[in-house]
Each structure stands twice: as C-alpha cells, then as structure tokens.
Amino acid sequence: MRFILLFLLLFSQTSFSLERADAFIVTAYNKQFKVLSPAKRTKKISVIIENKTLVKLIGEVVNENGTDREIVTIKPGKYKSVELVFEKNTKYYFIPLSPAFQKVVLDFGKKAYEIPSKK
After folding, report:
1. Would you say 9 and 50 are in contact if contact means Cβ atoms under 8 Å apart?
2. Which of 16, 23, 40, 51 has the fewest C-beta atoms lying within 10 Å of its C-beta?
3. What is each CA distance from 3 to 48, 107, 115, in whole angstroms?
4. Which tens digits make up the pLDDT trace of 14-25?
5. Under-70 pLDDT residues of the chain
C-alpha cells in the first residue's frame, strides 16, 4: 500500500494541469497549496498530504458538518496519507492549522488547482 501511495505521489505531479490521480494529493508550499483530485467520486478514498515547506505542518481533514475529522502532523519534506469515507452531498476540506492558511476544498473531478495565500 505504501509503495502505491509513493508511486502516485511521485509520478502524479509531472504535469499538474493534465494529470489525474486515484487519491487527493494536497501539496503544501510556502505561499500556496496545490491539489490534484481524482476524476471520479468513490466512497472510500485516500487524501495524501505532502509538506514541501521547511516547517512542521499541522492540519485536519474534515467534512462540513465537523463529524468526520482526522488531525495530521507532517514533518518538512514528508507526507502522510489519510483514508476517508466520502458521503454524498457533503463537502470535505483540509484545514492547515500551523502554519495557518485558508482551508483547502477537496473537490472531485476538477483539474489540478491551486489555493494561493490570502493577502
């Protein structure tokens, strides 16, 4: 399982605008987040969060109701995978807590997208 996740993480970022993945891949940079989303919605899916900053990243993957939440801590240069059960008609987010950043929407079927920092 770890090999498959590492393979997805390494080879899915070669062409962000055209690639799709079988999992959400959220990459944290110093001033932005990039998200690669799966083309199709499935009930059970992984959210891989990669930390490309120089500081420890603390955040949570949460649904809009706050009933399903998973807190993650990721060291610089590392990644962590969280497996979630996605419910229909429910929005999911990755919310960076430290360093603080705006919430990242996890949208199925979109092309790769970026969330810049608010000025």
Report:
1. yes
2. 40
3. 13, 25, 28
4. 444 455 568 999
5. 1-21, 118-119
